[in-house]
Design brief:
The two termini are about 35 Å apart. The longest helix has about 30 residues. Among the domains are: about 100 residues, OB fold (Dihydrolipoamide Acetyltransferase, E2P); about 150 residues, 3-Layer(aba) Sandwich (Rossmann fold), CATH 3.40.50; about 160 residues, P-loop containing nucleotide triphosphate hydrolases (Rossmann fold). Helix 6 crosses helix 7 and helix 7 packs across helix 22. It has 22 helices and 22 strands. Strands 6-7-4-3-2-5-8 form a seven-stranded mixed beta sheet. Strands 12-13-11-14-15-10-16 form a seven-stranded parallel beta sheet, with helices on both faces. By secondary structure, the chain is of the alpha/beta class. Strand 19, helix 17 and strand 20 form a beta-alpha-beta unit. It is globular.
Length: about 675
């Protein structure tokens, strides 16, 4: 009977040789069913098309031969006791030193034949290897020739074990897996049959066959992904909103009160949002802009359109610190216009909470700014029409949905200070319109960035002292709050004490981190904003939202431990005033090649959009997809960066089908649901 891949929910233990112990170990790889095994795709391949016997071990390249186990020996004592297998091919004899592989005693008994692959050398009077791959050659089965798959492993699971199980799964089920893409579409896109693609991606005869299989499976993944996006967009556009007139007088009055003019990008983005807000269906837009580009004022101007229509707006931030800063900004700008504001967070005083909730429910509050508390069960809105989610990647999809459900088909604006490369934007946010603010407000001086080795930290401290003497303030950021036995890193707590007592005893120093109570955090930040505190020592809790014009220096120690996006965000905390600002990235000798690339990229540009593309190249999309914020399954084969043209093709096909064939929607929903069942759904 033919089956779809997602239907192969049989436990992995149904395969011959997959006993309870092995099934448990496979569970650590996320493999519990036959379908999950078949979708555990190779991470790489090794070309074993040419045989090289033991006698040619000194030649360039690995030995690759078929050998017979002639003896088993043990050496060492206690925990250091190690198995040694003596194997022989037609040319010579060799020794396999089986460190941490005692199970090979039973797997490869004397007299068994095996395919041996690895680098050998002459030591202790024999040809031997401890870095080898060995797979028993079962009676009647030919060895794998050509490209051999290499899989991600876990302790107790060898490559040969996975290959054997994969062959068993393909033999039992693989040939009966049916296609999920329409035959005409598959033919037009030159796709392989699904069963053949599965077999070929695991055991390709040649590189061309492997690529055809990978392309087929990647297209299917992307098509399902884009199909879901198209269906969501269709569902949203089918909703109708009766819009009241909004002349925009409140926004005009606010713009007149601003001590600056909107940049061209801000004006363009605001026009795009306002056009959405006049459409008869709900807005879903992503606003991305570099650090300090002025997204918050655009969001407030857009929220006033909802207020003019008699509705309410909610602005949600991931931390109370950031939410309070937004609330303070909004109060200074909007309360003189008669707009009624409120702040709501989890630790709002118990006495103040009931009247605040009553005012929200009655419509007495126009705009509420807060944290996750905005979608608490007891929070009711009279007419929630406009939602802003700041730093949207900090929220899970279910959290965004919870706030959305508080309104009646509200418009939604999601904001991020971490620009998203176009390939990922189409993948993660393909159902959203995207607006970008690329230019910074005029008059700001670019932050000067320096890279410094850890042994030169005293020179950095001396430079900071000169700026402090000129009246400026400084950030010092560390990767850990307290000392750790697992990592030899400076901590914020220890360095706050050292900076206050030894390095800068003449200046007030404060410590800020996530474990402090919210009230304490607020007191510390208010002191820093007022200028009473001159040095703020912290973790990445200051990564977003902190706006201190007088802070002119950022020192990040152990900078190699931070991601590129986090470093860019931290650097964005300075350079917001009239003074020249400096960022020092101090790194240790224990630095990886990826970290070197990150620091070089940050040193070379301050353009967040360019850094986002570089971050994608360094980290790869696999680390950026499949997160809780995406709200969709992670990609197992497709790579949005490498497969960008295929992504655009799959998107056009999916959107075209949904648009041109309404009768297809039932089947489309079924296919999309199968896609979600097939891969890991992200948790909100």
């Amino acid at each position: 009977m033919a089956v779809f891949l997602h239907e192969l929910r049989q436990p992995i233990g149904t395969l011959r040789g997959a006993g309870p112990a092995l099934a448990s170990r496979l569970g650590r790889l996320g493999i519990a069913t036959v379908a999950e095994l078949l979708q555990h795709y190779p991470r790489d391949y090794e070309d074993r098309s040419a045989y090289r016997p033991f006698s040619r071990f000194a030649e360039p390249g690995p030995v690759h031969t078929i050998a017979t186990v002639t003896a088993q020996e043990w050496f060492g004592f206690g925990r250091m006791k190690t198995l040694k297998l003596i194997v022989a091919d037609e040319s010579s004899e060799a020794a396999l030193i089986c460190f941490n592989r005692p199970f090979l005693e039973k797997t490869l008994p004397v007299g068994s034949r095996a395919v041996v692959h690895g680098k050998f050398q002459f030591r202790y009077g024999e040809i031997q290897s401890s870095a080898f791959d060995v797979e028993r050659l079962e009676e009647g089965r030919d060895p794998i020739v050509g490209l051999v798959p290499l899989y991600s492993l876990t302790e107790g699971v060898a490559q040969g074990t996975l290959r054997r199980l994969m062959r068993s799964a393909l033999d039992m089920y693989g040939k009966r897996v049916e296609d999920e893409i329409d035959p005409e579409l598959a033919a037009a896109r030159e796709l392989l049959p699904k069963a053949r693609a599965l077999a070929s991606i695991h055991f390709p005869a040649a590189a061309a066959e492997r690529e055809s299989a990978r392309r087929t499976l990647a297209y299917e993944e992307l098509f399902k992904f884009q199909l879901g996006i198209a269906l969501r967009m269709r569902a949203r556009h089918s909703q109708t909103i009766r819009r009241k007139a909004a002349p925009g007088l409140l926004a005009e009055r606010l713009i007149q009160r601003l001590p600056f003019s909107l940049t061209a990008d801000q004006a363009k983005v605001l026009a795009e949002i306002n056009a959405d807000l006049d459409e008869p269906h709900p807005m879903a837009r992503l606003l991305q802009g570099d650090v300090g580009s002025g997204k918050t004022i655009v969001a407030l101007l857009a929220a006033l359109r909802a207020v003019e229509r008699g509705g309410q707006a909610a602005i949600m931030a991931p931390t109370e610190l950031l939410a309070r800063l937004h609330a303070a900004t909004a109060a200074a700008l909007l309360e003189p216009l008669g707009v009624k504001l409120a702040f709501l967070a989890g630790n709002v005083d118990d006495a103040a909470r009931p009247p605040l909730l009553e005012a929200l429910a009655s419509g007495a509050i126009d705009i509420v700014i807060g944290t996750h508390a905005l979608f608490s069960e007891d929070v009711v809105y009279e007419a929630l029409q406009f939602i802003v989610i700041d730093e949207q990647h900090r929220f899970g999809v279910m959290q965004r949905l919870a706030l959305y459900k508080k309104g009646n088909i509200p418009d939604m604006l999601m904001m991020t200070a971490t620009p998203i490369p176009r390939s990922l934007a189409l993948t993660l946010f393909g159902d959203l319109a995207v607006s970008s603010i690329r230019t910074l407000p005029p008059g700001r001086k670019p932050v000067i960035t320096h890279l410094a080795k850890q042994e030169n930290e005293l020179k950095v401290y001396d430079f900071v002292r000169k700026l402090l003497a000129e009246g400026r303030q400084a950030f010092f950021v560390y990767p850990l709050i307290g000392e750790s036995e697992k990592a030899d890193l400076k901590s914020a707590e220890a360095m706050a004490a050292r900076l206050a007592e030894e390095v800068y005893p003449e200046y007030p120093v404060a410590l800020l981190h996530s474990k402090l109570k919210e009230e304490k955090k607020r007191e510390i930040m208010e002191s820093f904003v007022a200028g009473s505190t001159k040095i703020l020592v912290s973790t990445t809790v200051v990564e977003v939202g902190v706006d201190i014009p007088n802070a002119a220096v950022m020192v990040v120690e152990h900078a190699e431990r931070f991601g590129l996006s986090a470093l860019h965000q931290l650097r964005g905390r300075i350079g917001r005033g009239a003074h020249q600002s400096y960022c020092f990235l101090i790194y240790s000798d224990d630095i990886t090649e990826d970290a070197v690339q990150r620091l070089k990229a940050l040193y070379g540009t301050s353009d967040g959009f360019a850094l986002a593309e570089e971050d994608l190249k360094i980290r790869g999309p696999g680390e950026l997809l499949g997160t809780a914020q995406s709200g969709a399954f992670r990609l197992l084969v497709a790579d949005p960066l490498r497969d960008f043209e295929l992504l655009k093709l799959a998107r056009a096909d999916a959107f075209g089908i949904v648009k041109e064939d309404p009768g297809f929607l039932t089947a489309a929903h079924a296919l999309y649901r199968r896609g979600l069942e097939t891969a890991d759904k992200a948790k909100g």
